[in-house]
Amino acid sequence: AQSVTQPDARVTVSEGASLQLRCKYSYFGTPYLFWYVQYPRQGLQLLLKYYPGDPVVQGVNGFEAEFSKSNSSFHLRKASVHWSDWAVYFCAVSIENQGGSAKLIFGEGTKLTVSS
Amino acid sequence: EAAVTQSPRSKVAVTGGKVTLSCHQTNNHDYMYWYRQDTGHGLRLIHYSYVADSTEKGDIPDGYKASRPSQENFSLILELASLSQTAVYFCASSLWGYAEQFFGPGTRLTVL
After folding, report:
1. Nearest CA in chain B to A5
2. CB of B109 closer than 8 Å to CB of B88
3. For B9-52, how does the pLDDT look when each residue is reduced to its tens digit (9 = 90+)?
């Protein structure tokens, strides 16, 4: 079955340190992949998206992600974390749905804490 | 200016009562979605629509109905609210099926 797995429910990183949040997906077709961020009591905001092409995609606020077909992964990275990055991060895959439409399947999220 | 708005932002409902959540988008998008988020978890798709006057079932449609009277508006209806429907509900829109989705701020529903 199609699914998205974020193996780390919680990650703590020191401010200024590098970050990697892991995402694995299961989907037989061509994946369209997304990373969203959710700040407390807010909706989801798009960080970056992968459409078939260059495996490394750049997003907002210095985030980037790399798609790996062989590993079925789409890990999120940032070179230097800022305290304002403290949030929950969701990985999602867009999969084919009925009627030619598509739907998003979300992972459970990774809560990022930034320590000083 | 916010492109996807939801009302109300929070609501307390009684078990067995009817609840209507509204969503309005100014993105000129054809696709609209309703998700629910339970505390500490990801989002799950309830209903979606890709054209006015038509809705489709998502992954967890039981206990919910949807209505899309126009391209801009998409409502989620709980005819008989239950305790298990306490959650945060998010509306989203997208230009086409595989495109990124733009989310509203959410509606926090508590059923007592």
Report:
1. B42
2. yes
3. 999 999 999 999 999 999 999 999 999 999 878 899 999 999 99
Q: Which residue of A has its CA nearest to B51?
A: A101
DSSP A39-64: -TT--EEEEEEE-SS-SEEE-GGGEE
Of B41, B42, B90, the CB nearest to A43: B90
Local confidence band at A99 (pLDDT 50, 70, 90 cut-offs): low
C-beta atoms surrounding A64 within 10 Å: 16
Q: Name the phi and psi angles at A24, rounded to 5.
A: -125, 140
Distance from CA of A48 to the nearest CA of B (A): 9
User: Given this model, what pLDDT does residue B40 score?
Assistant: 79
DSSP secondary structure letter of residue B9? S
Q: What is the pLDDT of residues A50-66, one digit of tens each?
A: 999 999 999 999 999 99
Residue B51: helix, strand or coil by DSSP? Answer: strand
CA-to-CA dists, residue B105 to A66, B3, B35, B42, B65, angstroms: 28, 10, 12, 15, 21
Residue type, A52: P
Q: What pLDDT score was predicted for residue A7?
A: 96
Contact A44 B58 (CB under 8 A): no
What residues of B are in contact with residue A49 (Cβ under 8 Å)?
100
